[in-house]
Amino acid sequence: SQREILTRAEKEVDSPWGRIQVIQVTTKEGVSFFKPEYEVCRRICLEHDLTLKEIYRWVMGLNKK
Questions:
Q1: Phi and psi (nearest 5°) for 44?
Q2: Is the CB of residue 37 less than 8 Å from the CB of residue 21?
Q3: How far apart are CA 62 and CA 24, in angstroms?
Q4: Tens digit of pLDDT for each residue in 8-44?
Q5: Residue 35 contacts by C-beta under 8 Å, 6 or more apart in sequence?
Q6: What is the pTM of this model?
Q7: Which residues neighbour 55 within 8 Å (Cβ) at sequence distance 6 or greater?
Q8: Strand pairing partners for 32?
Q9: Which end of the chain is more exposed for a tag (fewer CB within 10 A), N or C?
């Protein structure tokens, strides 16, 4: 099977920790969703004493709106 190449764009969103950078991915069908950016999440974790899982869960929660 052939892998699908998805369109990606860097976006900024408001979060409980200030504006953060995420990746917006768009499928060939035109469906968009947000993905966490590891280094951004890591920085937030260190600054706010949180786990990566907490930050990832918050970013992925943006997709349910």
A1: -60, -40
A2: yes
A3: 11
A4: 999 999 999 999 999 999 998 899 999 999 999 999 9
A5: 22, 23, 24, 25, 59, 60
A6: 0.81
A7: 36, 41, 44, 45
A8: 26
A9: N
49 φψ region: left (φ > 0), alpha (ψ -120 to 50), beta (else): left
Instruction: Give the DSSP H or E segment for 58.
Output: helix 52-61
Distance CA(65)–CA(52), nearest Å, equals 21
C-alpha distances in Å from residue 59, one per residue of 4, 10, 39:
23, 14, 13
Sequence-distant (≥ 6) Cβ neighbours of residue 46 within 8 angstroms: none
| Pairing assessment for the beta strands 7-15 and 18-26 based on DSSP bridges | antiparallel
User: How far apart, in Å, are the Cα atoms of 55 and each of 5, 14, 21, 24, 28?
Assistant: 26, 13, 12, 16, 27
